Amino acid sequence: MIKLTSKNYGSVIQRQRREWPKYSTQLMNVASQNCKATSPKNVGSMKELWTEMRNQGIPGTLENWTEFYKSKKGEGLLIDAGQKIYDMLVKMGITWISLDMAMQYVKEVVYNKTQMGLGGEEMAVQVVAGYYNLPYRFSTPEEESKGIDAYIGNYPVQVKPHDSVFKAHVHNHADKDKVLFVTYENKKQVCYIHNPEFINK
Asked: Which of 17, 115, 137, 142 is the most interior residue, by most CB within 10 Å?
């Protein structure tokens, strides 16, 4: 088994993320909690929107999620949320965090953190494809019905949450002679290739 960690996720996540001044995200998080800027009431339910996107058969990549959210909600709600956070920071006496930083923080939460938390399967496929330096594509509905979640190169892949491996449900026991079996840990930058010998590098 091969474990892929945050350094392998870099090409998938970090190109969209920015460096924040020390303590700034913690302070913006507190401000957001105080004014409920990123609550479902203000920016929409991320879980509901994500489920709607996936039910339409749209793979949960960061790019797809960003475009889907914009198509459903626009960016006006994010601008309002950023303003709320900035106003709360001022009330808290914190003046060195700019309005632009507050706006970018909201996008970080809505786009990146939502996709990181809910898009574990898609991210795992991209990371493993990067590890093997092979192209990838997500499966069609017909392929999904056969237990294939994606293809890396010409190799079929099955992807599951890591804790599901320890459950008794029959669909969680992949045939490692027929598919590359990958698991991922929810909300973490970690995935595992259980039968790496399946792909001849």
From this structure: 115
Q: Do both 110 and 129 map to the same domain?
A: no
What are 132's two structure tokens? 């093997």
Q: Looking at the 3D structure of the chain, how many domains does it have?
A: 2
How far is C-alpha 156 from the geometric centre of its chain's CA atoms?
22
Sign of the CA dihedral with 117 first, then 131, 183, and 137 last: positive
* pLDDT digits 0-9 by tens, 95-151: 999 999 999 999 999 998 888 777 888 889 999 999 999 999 888 778 877 888 889
Q: For residue 4, what are the β-bridge partners?
A: 191
Two tokens at 82?
Answer: 């950023």
> How does DSSP classify residue 109?
I
Say if 4 falls within a structural domain. no
Q: Which of 68, 102, 118 is the last residue of a domain?
A: 118
Per DSSP, what are the bridge partners of residue 182? 159, 193
Residues in contact with 32: Cβ distance below 8 Å, sequence separation at least 6, in sequence order: 38, 81, 84, 85, 88, 105, 106, 109
Q: How far apart are CA 130 and CA 136, in angstroms?
A: 9
- Kindly state whether residues 112 and 13 are assigned to the same domain: yes
Query: Is the domain of 99 the same as that of 168?
Result: no
37: Cβ contacts below 8 Å, ≥ 6 apart: 31, 43, 81, 82, 84, 85, 88, 106
